[in-house]
Amino acid sequence: MNAASTPLDAPALGARPGFAEVAAEQLDAVYRYLVYLTGDRGAAEDLAAETFEKAFRSWRRFDPRRGSPRTWLCKIARSVAIDWFRAETRRRKREDRYARDLSSSEDFGDGLPGPLQEALHALSPAEREVVALRVLLELDGPSAARVLGISQTACSTRLSRALRRLEERMDDVRE
Length: 175
Fold this sequence. Notes:
The chain is mainly α. It has helices at about 20-40, 40-55, 70-100, 115-120, 125-135, 140-150, 150-175.
């Protein structure tokens, strides 16, 4: 094959792949790695999103001579997972402290119709916290994420899951 017969859209040998191509090829591998690390598919989805968000922002610094895209992405994923484990530990401590203090304070959801109050209490403390910040206090996504110490993506995912659980509980009451 000579230069005249080489297609114009074919990548040159040793050419750096595009981020979209790498992300599409490596998404499943990174997700599986995060499921293995966390043991939680929901958390792995959130962490995979955060991993690819960080990777996209730092794509220009990726050097294919230093390692494969999968290695680079797994290194980012590991760092994101370690940060998540640390944040989870802090969150659990905060929730335990909150749960101890809750018995002596006014209950979240008091004054609401019984089924809605029960549905709110069925949520995890983290879900109740994001609902309180976003719905009751009407904070925007970035502000709520800062308060919670999580990414905007994780905050919106947590809110979406909490609202879906509330809706399911309320549907069960209506039936």
